[in-house]
Specification:
Chain lengths: 136, 77
């Protein structure tokens, strides 16, 4: 496992921890306060310290580039869907003409989590395709 | 699957059973990349293709083969 894969695992685990933490906290402190669980994603800040001296070649860079594009695309979609979905729920279901301003921050933060989580998953999938040949 | 095939594995064995690690070091990539190349799961850049060919003292077309797909058919074997 190289440094990029280790960083991807960290990103994936922290991303999952955010979701699990949020879901676990909602019944106790409510949906807004439970967003505090997103703070767990700060642990991903340790990623740059993993494998700093490890050499990355052209394939590593290619995988990182493609995974970043995938993450950005998923993040953009999540952000747009989050914005549209919020308005749809507010207007069509709840009959409200306004939404809380706090939702904007949450949607933005969700977009960031989706970006890193999808990027991490994509990195692992792309490296994983070659695992079976690792012992050749 | 890339249309560029190669005979890196055979050439390694022809060159005193050169290890993947040794070839990787010589051409400046990781062993994982050599593994992916041998399995034809990764198409190298032109620069890397030339470095690999040079490591075996062969012209690049002796190491890599591009199978031009015929319309309606897959790559030729």
């Amino acid at each position: 496992m190289n440094a990029e894969q280790k960083r991807a695992w960290l990103g994936l685990v922290t991303g999952m921890a955010c979701v699990v933490g949020y879901v676990a906290l909602v019944p106790f402190i409510g949906p807004m306060a439970a967003t505090a669980a997103f703070g767990l994603y700060g642990l991903n800040g340790f990623a740059p310290f993993i494998g700093r001296k490890e050499h990355a070649d052209e394939r590593d860079r290619s995988i990182a580039h493609r995974a970043t594009l995938g993450g950005a695309m998923a993040s953009y979609m999540a952000f747009i869907l989050g914005c549209m979905g919020t308005w749809f729920i507010a207007f069509a279901w709840l009959g409200k003409e306004q939404v809380s301003v706090h939702l904007m921050g949450i949607i933005t933060y969700l977009g960031a989590i989706v970006f890193y989580t999808v990027r991490s998953a994509a990195v692992l999938v792309m490296y994983g395709r070659h695992v079976e040949a690792d012992h050749a | 699957m890339p249309e560029i095939a190669n005979c890196i594995r055979r050439l390694r064995f022809d060159h005193d059973e050169m290890t993947q690690e040794a070839l990787a070091e010589r051409v400046g990539v990781t062993r994982q990349t050599i593994i992916a190349l041998e399995a034809c799961k990764y198409t190298p850049s032109l620069s890397l293709a030339f470095r690999i060919a040079r490591a075996f003292n062969k012209p690049v077309e002796d190491v890599f083969r591009y199978d031009i797909p015929v319309q309606g058919e897959g790559p030729t074997p």
